[in-house]
Amino acid sequence: MNKEISCTNLVQEKLELLKQNTHNTVNSLLEDLALDLATKIDAKIEKGQEIGLLEGIPFGIKDVYMVQGTLTTASSNLLKNYKSSYTASAIQKLLDAGAIPLVKENCDSFGHGSSSENTIFGAVKNAINPDLVGGGSSGGSAVNVAKEYTVFSIGGDTGGSIRQPAGYNKIYGLKPTYGRVSRFGLMAYASSTDCVGPIAKSIEDIRIVLNVISGKDIKDQTTYASIEILKDNISKNNTIKTIGYYKNFIESEVISSDIKSDFLATIDKIKAKGIQIEELDFFESETLVSTYYTLAMAETASNLSRLDGTNYGSRIEGDNLKDTYSITRSENFSEETKRRIVGGNQVLSQGFSDEIYLKSLNLRDQITANFEKDFNKVDIILSPITPNSPPKIGASLNNPLTMYLSDAYTVGFSLGQLPTLTAPKGTEIGIQITAAKKNDELVLQFANFLNDIL
Ligand code: GLN
Fold first, then answer.
1. CB of 98 within 8 A of CB of 54?
2. Active site residue 62
3. pLDDT confidence of 366, banded at 50, 70, 90?
């Protein structure tokens, strides 16, 4: 380290950029906390003590993670004054490693959306073209990284919310294998697919952050112990022999001709390196999207039932308790969130649950079995991230169904709980690299390989 800049100066510089930014990425700044932590790191440097890899590195946090004493709003009216009483496990690990949190970042309310327009803090603007959406739901996090307001950000991905905004802003975003990173302290959207993951500008940054936040946590029974991913293992010569892609994703009527031709050109370049290509069959986009949304809505209806103005949330008094619940929830949830709560309660209700909810669980099992079969044949599955490039701000709001269908290529991998990464390569909005469960290392290795050949 050549001490060209102090940690305090670095943090001040980034805080200033965040304050002045016009992309609506900030819900609240953690200025006092950040400067206090920076002073401590500077003192360590002054004393000549050893500094860890992440010590003093400024990062951002999607505003759905608890950080004790700070506002955690989920970009909602309901929680706009809610202060966390504890810190999420993944964030605590980063704090323990000396990273410095700067900001709680704008996102779609409760993760409900694909554009970061469903928020009380104003639509997030794309880092490359501010007339376009930032993507969602972790839009503020992706834009902050792309604009270098943060070095990395922690997003959340239930059905694509890290990968899609990473693609729209041309950076890396990883959804790790479900259970690799603890969800404790992440505000629950759909618990069976919610994943915590890093957004960053390089594969190396993704690797470093992933290693720190991974691991078994007694506070989240779905977590498992994983081994550290070593730099050497992901930068050594490519060990991948076969990759596959889903024919129906590429032959779909809705994919833009540019994304399709760029994707196929990328496949040709990979083939030219001696890697075997398999065309695979998969479920139709409509089946994937409806299975995902049925389950996600059911789970969010259950998870959000605790937000009634009594235990949590801004309360609006009615004539009696029932009225109070109902006014609090009707006035404070967004239209999109209410659509999901109503839909979720409907599919869980007696008379509907067998036909809809249980059928979706069954389809999910079939999707998982299909992945197992495919990963017996191929090492990696490649796909575009979305069928189209980012829409203009305002264009998606009137048509929720179109927005749901834009998630066609990301939600299947979420239902399968697979590790999957957006790399800003291969098409104008990047490419999605997916491996079998717990094989996050292979995803990063292939990303390095793509970097070398594209
Ligand atoms: N766009 C998807 C949805 O609205 C995914 C969101 C997410 O991953 N949080 O459900």
1. yes
2. yes
3. very high
Instruction: pLDDT band for 399, please (50, 70, 90 cuts).
Output: confident
φ, ψ at 39 (rounded to 5°): -60, -40
Residue 388, Cβ density class (10 Å: 0-12 exposed, 13-18 middle, ≥19 buried): middle
* 111 CB-side CA count, 13 A: 29
SS3 (DSSP) at 43: helix
Two structure tokens written together for 232: 């050497």
Distance separating alpha carbons of residues 45 and 3, to the nearest angstrom: 9
Distance CA 197, CA 245 (A): 24
What is the C-alpha separation between 440 and 443, in angstroms, rounded?
5
- Cβ atoms of 119 and 75 within 8 Å: the answer is yes
Cβ atoms of 132 and 156 closer than 8 Å: no
CATH of 7-231, one of 3.30.110.10, 1.10.3210.10, 3.40.50.2300, 3.90.1300.10: 3.90.1300.10
Q: 161 an active-site residue? A: yes
Q: Distance from the CA of 137 to the center of ligand 1, in angstroms?
A: 6
pLDDT, position 2 = 60
Check whether 397 has a pLDDT greater than 90: no
Joined tokens for residue 107: 């996102």
Contacts of 350 (CB under 8 A, 6+ apart): none
What are 5-25's pLDDT values in tens digits?
899 999 999 999 999 999 999
Choosing from 75, 141, 161, 290, the catalytic residue is 161
pLDDT exceeds cutoff 70 at 4 = yes
Instruction: Give 385 Cα–ligand 1 centroid separation in angstroms.
Output: 13
Q: Where are the beta strands (DSSP E) in 322-389?
A: 380-383
Q: Is 75 one of the annotated active-site residues of the chain?
A: no
pTM: 0.97
